[in-house]
User: Fold this.
Amino acid sequence: MTTWRKMQPWDALPVFSLMREFYDRRIGAGTVTDAQLWDSLERCAGEYPHLEGFVVFEDQTLAGYAMLSRGYDPAQNCETLLLQEFYVDRPFRAGGCGDRFLRALPTLCPDCGYVAIADTAGEGVWRPLGYRRNANYYVAACRKVEDAAPNP
Assistant:
């Protein structure tokens, strides 16, 4: 069963290892320093208002993490969240863990107008997860808490 919650300070060490793997594979070992990763983790799990982190679990085992930055859309008169990073560890990718989290993400942020994802993967990937093309992003409107599905 896939579950998730906001990142807490005690998540930093296990998430750090996932972040290190993400960056080493994505842009090359040594390009992003450990100090930079720790800074991001402290912001995600702390009181920093512009970056929010989530941890994703599969059967109570850490499976991945997400980092979202907060912004504001003056045309829509609402706060927005932009998915900056999303990583699911290899053993959990084929089981749909990531898809379940991305489907639920708009319900996790009821105080904002929408969640946006900048990706070139295309409609076939994002539409089944509830996201629609809007300029350079795929977006999903956030739902009010009372309308949100509970975390399984």
In short: The mean pLDDT is 88. The chain is about 30% helix and 30% strand. Strands lie at 2-6, 51-58, 61-73, 78-88, 114-117, 132-134, 137-141.
